[in-house]
Design goal:
Elements lengths: L20 H25 L4 H14 L6 H39 L6 H12 L6 H37 L3 H33 L6 H7 L4
Helix pairs in contact: 1-3, 2-3, 3-5, 4-5, 5-6
């Protein structure tokens, strides 16, 4: 097995790698779906919050000469929140599909571009005792963080699907509540990864490692 696409020449950072078209498409689709998922959560936590909109519903109906109780107004505001959660579930189905697609891509990628082989190569490089040892250590940590990302995504997809189909599967309220809590915790783990990932890319692009973003667009293929 060769690793010519890991580091093309001594003057090129190990982080500058080639990426297949399938992986690039997957990357940007996943970015789009995760961003959409976050937006739906933020909207439901703010603009579409059912408790916050109860008074708004009552005020608007009163202007039309209609008076409703808190319970009736809550039911109306709840419907809007439910519609947004329906969008969130559809996005979740998309992410679950993308996770399966990533597994397929991993098996069909060129050998030197497979994540498991890049992890293996990263460990081999870290064992070297040369001037680039610090960069090799950083490279290994980044690749390991990707495995953590996939684990978080897998668990989020699993708990999300569990909540979506729990009633059909006969899950109790306790199980549904546990899935919801785990899903919520994983959500913040995902936020943390995204912030760290974006910060790392920005720092790298403005430092010595340039071309990460363009490489995920054009593939760094010569």
């Amino acid at each position: 097995m060769t690793y010519q696409n890991i580091a093309p020449n001594p003057e090129t950072s190990i982080f500058i790698q080639s990426h297949s078209a399938a992986l690039r498409i997957w990357h940007w689709l996943t970015f789009l779906f995760i961003t959409t998922s976050i937006v739906t959560v933020l909207l439901n936590s703010t603009m579409f919050s059912q408790r916050d909109n109860v008074k708004l519903v009552q005020e608007q109906l009163e202007k039309k000469g209609v008076t409703v109780t808190d319970e009736q107004a809550f039911a109306v505001s709840h419907e809007y929140e439910e519609k947004m959660w329906d969008v969130h579930k559809l996005v979740g189905y998309g992410l679950a599909f993308l996770l399966l697609a990533r597994i397929v891509i991993e098996f069909t990628q060129p050998e030197e571009e497979k994540l498991r082989n890049r992890l293996k190569r990263a460990r081999e490089l870290r064992a070297k005792n040369d001037a680039n040892k610090a960069e090799y250590n950083h490279y290994l940590k980044v690749k390991l963080s990707y495995t953590i990302f996939f684990l978080i995504l897998f668990c989020m997809a699993l708990t999300g699907l569990g909540m979506a189909f729990g009633r059909d599967l006969g899950f109790s309220r306790e199980i549904h509540g546990s899935l919801k809590n785990i899903h919520g915790i994983l959500q913040y783990c995902m936020y943390a990864f995204i912030v760290l990932h974006l910060a790392g890319v920005i720092i790298a692009e403005n430092g010595k490692i340039k071309g990460l973003v363009s490489g995920m667009i054009n593939g760094n293929r010569s």
